[in-house]
């Protein structure tokens, strides 16, 4: 019996709309599972809405509805958005369910018996005004690691550090803005730092379940010392109550990943599969696909819990990078924080799936949506290569040759042989089959960008064959030769439909209908068998897209974000910005920089790559989004102010080793210049 493959994506939080950043993950997992199914694997795609925690409680209170009502509203919205983008879960559940409650309570009981839990008295943030302990999202303050302000009590959105709410500096209650006091509270801790668990994690990180760079990253956490994990929260809290402790609830990050278990078990019930079949059996292979923002929870807490309760460990945790737009983080003010629903109002959703596939690989690299590249890819590849071949060959056959395929000048067996260097129709068919075999292997390894290249090679073979054979001229001398040319090209189209299906299923299914076929599997042995029969009716496959439409999309997204966001103070508001101390300011290392070179970053409208001398042995490379206001040649020779101790970051794959300071007025940028002859590296105070 071959293994069934249980694939999950991280659970979307039922507290906001699905946006393009979310779809990086859900589309990738969908393509992967579709491909596995097409290759004959018993694979299934499980997900659920993460439905607990204080952000949901807060949002529901602001809207004047119950948390359950809020969760159900977003659950329905999410299902509609996923369907729009052809994300086809085998099961999409909800963590606020009776089945998940039973799973969580059972796991808790098992952890108790395994003696991996203990009660500890800890300091909690108590709000006297609200008469409650403040959970993570009911408190804000300054990050204890990087001093970023306005951070919640569990994780810093600036540096990614996790910490206890009591570690926050200058904390405030988000409900009443009062300063909380610290008060003792009893909580349940999972012994993450126990010698037994550290030894387990050390071995597991060497198992190959993670990409090497991710494994190294996580191992640094283990090596530097783990802290035990608090899995309880004080009530009131929107979540599952801990059965044997008064007014204590399970932390959302315990019951959310266990939602994988509950959702897959709900799916399995109608198929005669038990929780033991799915989570305690070698017959099931478990694979998670997650973003690198939640690596900590999925590579430390999750495998530790599974190991403690005797569940199957994930064979693979595929970690992907985050989405940038035009080389920068998604931004509501710039209109690049784009909801799925808004995108679908301007573009066919499969354009995004295709573009993402062009960028996906098996590594944890970030993915950039560059609008000019997006338009170029869709028009030059999806329209001009793929759709064009279907259209030209099928239209010619329908209009000139009664819509019927003819024979091929080679046998099916000959098409399966190894290709050589000739350009005979038989050898061109062999090259198509060879590319198809490569694609099957690449799908198993999630190398989607390589798959796109292989698919384009197949399309090129068909388009070049049609152009070289000129069936419009063949028709005058030998109509059957023209029919053979179209038959060959439409068999190439069969390969395209078959292997494009996991990526753009609607396009592929339409293409298959044109061929008079139904897509049932991805199998290179099925190629070049379509002969001597009628084809289906013509259908419009894809239209070209315009760059100006992306501008409309950004404008609509910006307008949508401004409507949803709370109003900011007016320019003449008496509110003062948050103050910092002189000690905080001293942390910045500002230096005079002399610009040596500057050039535009390819495929970016805003970014320039700049070489700056700041008095060090080698120049610094800085990537700056100032292209709309400055041409590269205008910068060379000028002196600017550089933040020299900013952590390096990658923009569109290019490392930036600092920041050049500028003033901003709307879209207009003005660099801070040095008006005296100071040497490179001079301190700016």
Could you explain the architecture of this structure?
The protein is of the alpha+beta class. It has 22 helices and 26 strands. Strands 3-2-1-13-14 form a five-stranded parallel β-sheet, with helices on both faces. Strand 15 and strand 16 form a beta hairpin. Helix 2 crosses helix 3 and helix 13 packs antiparallel against helix 18. The radius of gyration is 29 Å and the shape is globular.
List the helices and strands and how they pair.
Blueprint lengths: L3 E6 L10 H19 L3 E8 L4 H10 L3 H18 L6 E4 L3 H16 L3 E11 L4 E2 L5 E4 L8 E2 L16 E5 L7 E10 L4 H10 L7 H13 L4 E2 L1 E3 L13 E3 L1 H4 L2 H12 L5 H5 L4 E8 L3 H15 L6 E5 L2 E3 L2 E2 L10 H7 L2 H11 L7 E3 L1 H30 L11 H4 L9 H20 L3 H22 L1 H7 L1 H22 L4 H11 L31 H18 L17 H5 L3 E11 L7 E6 L6 E5 L7 H4 L3 E5 L5 E3 L2 E3 L2 E2 L1 E4 L2 E4 L14
Helix pairs in contact: 2-3, 4-8, 11-20, 12-13, 13-16, 13-18, 15-16, 15-18, 16-18, 17-18, 18-19
Label this structure with key terms.
five-stranded antiparallel sheet, alpha+beta, five-stranded parallel sheet, 22 helices, 685 residues
Mean pLDDT: 91
Euclidean distance between termini CA atoms: 70 Å
Largest sheet: 5 strands, parallel
Q: Runs with pLDDT <50, length 5+?
A: 565-578
Category from helices, strands and their pairing:
alpha+beta
Number of helices: 22
Radius of gyration: 29 Å
- Reading side by side through the largest sheet, how are the strands ordered? 3-2-1-13-14
Query: Given the C-alpha coordinates, what overall shape results?
Result: globular
Helicity level, as a percent range?
A: 40-55%
Report the count of strand segments: 26
Strand content: 15-25%
């Amino acid at each position: 019996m071959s293994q069934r493959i249980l694939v999950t994506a991280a659970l979307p939080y039922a507290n906001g709309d699905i946006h393009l950043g979310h779809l990086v993950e859900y589309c990738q997992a969908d393509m992967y599972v579709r491909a596995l199914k097409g290759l004959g694997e018993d694979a299934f795609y499980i997900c659920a809405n993460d439905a607990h925690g204080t952000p949901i409680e807060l949002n529901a209170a602001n809207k004047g509805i119950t948390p359950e009502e809020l969760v159900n509203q977003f659950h329905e919205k999410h299902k509609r958005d996923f369907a729009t983008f052809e994300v086809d879960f085998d099961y999409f559940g909800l963590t606020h369910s009776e089945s998940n409650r039973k799973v969580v309570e059972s796991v808790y009981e098992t952890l108790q018996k395994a003696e991996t839990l203990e009660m500890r008295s800890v300091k909690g943030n108590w709000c006297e005004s609200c008469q409650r302990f403040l959970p993570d999202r009911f408190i804000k303050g300054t990050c204890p690691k990087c001093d970023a302000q306005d951070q919640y009590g569990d994780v810093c959105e600036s540096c990614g550090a996790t910490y206890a709410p009591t570690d926050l500096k200058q904390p405030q209650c988000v409900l009443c803005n009062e300063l909380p006091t610290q008060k003792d509270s009893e909580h349940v801790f999972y012994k993450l730092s126990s010698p037994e668990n550290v030894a387990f994690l050390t071995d597991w990180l060497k198992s190959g379940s993670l990409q090497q760079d991710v494994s190294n990253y996580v191992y640094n956490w283990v090596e530097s010392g783990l802290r035990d994990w608090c899995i309880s929260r004080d009530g009131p809290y929107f979540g599952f109550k801990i059965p044997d402790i008064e007014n204590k609830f399970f932390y959302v990050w315990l019951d959310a990943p266990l939602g994988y278990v509950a959702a897959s078990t709900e799916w399995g019930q109608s198929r005669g599969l038990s929780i033991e079949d799915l989570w305690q059996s070698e017959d099931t292979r478990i694979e998670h696909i997650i973003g690198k923002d939640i690596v900590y929870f999925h590579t430390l807490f999750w495998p530790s819990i599974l190991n403690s309760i005797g569940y199957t460990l994930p064979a693979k945790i595929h970690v992907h990078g985050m989405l940038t737009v035009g080389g920068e983080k998604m931004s509501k003010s710039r209109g690049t924080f784009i909801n799925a629903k808004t995108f679908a109002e301007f573009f066919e959703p499969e354009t995004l799936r295709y573009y993402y596939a062009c960028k996906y690989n098996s590594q944890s690299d970030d993915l950039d949506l560059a609008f000019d590249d997006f338009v170029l890819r869709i028009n030059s590849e999806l329209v001009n290569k793929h759709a064009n071949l279907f259209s030209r060959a099928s239209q010619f056959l329908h209009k000139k040759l009664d819509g019927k395929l003819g024979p091929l000048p080679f046998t099916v067996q000959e098409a399966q042989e190894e290709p050589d260097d000739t350009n005979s129709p038989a050898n061109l068919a062999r090259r198509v089959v060879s590319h198809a075999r490569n694609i099957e292997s690449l799908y198993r390894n999630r190398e989607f960008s390589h798959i796109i290249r292989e698919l384009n090679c197949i399309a090129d073979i068909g388009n070049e064959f049609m152009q070289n054979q000129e069936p419009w001229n063949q028709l005058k001398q030998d109509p059957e030769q023209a029919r053979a040319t179209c038959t060959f090209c439409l068999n190439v189209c069969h390969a395209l439909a078959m292997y494009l299906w996991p990526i753009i299923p609607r396009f592929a299914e339409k293409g298959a209908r044109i061929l008079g076929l139904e897509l049932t599997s991805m199998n290179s042995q099925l190629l070049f068998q379509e002969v001597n029969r009628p084809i289906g009716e013509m259908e419009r496959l894809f239209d070209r897209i315009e760059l100006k439409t992306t501008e409309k999309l950004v404008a609509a997204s910006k307008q949508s974000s401004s409507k949803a966001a709370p109003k900011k103070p007016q320019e003449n508001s008496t509110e003062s910005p948050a103050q910092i101390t002189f000690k905080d300011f001293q942390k910045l290392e500002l230096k005079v920089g002399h610009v040596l070179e500057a050039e535009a970053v390819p495929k970016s409208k805003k970014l320039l790559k700049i070489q700056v001398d700041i008095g060090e042995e080698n120049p610094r490379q800085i990537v700056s989004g100032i292209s709309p206001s400055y041409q590269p040649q205008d910068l060379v020779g000028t002196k600017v102010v550089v933040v020299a101790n900013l952590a390096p970051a990658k923009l569109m794959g290019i490392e930036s080793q600092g920041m050049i300071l500028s003033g901003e007025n709307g879209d207009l940028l003005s660099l801070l210049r040095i008006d005296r002859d100071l040497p490179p590296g001079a301190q700016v105070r």
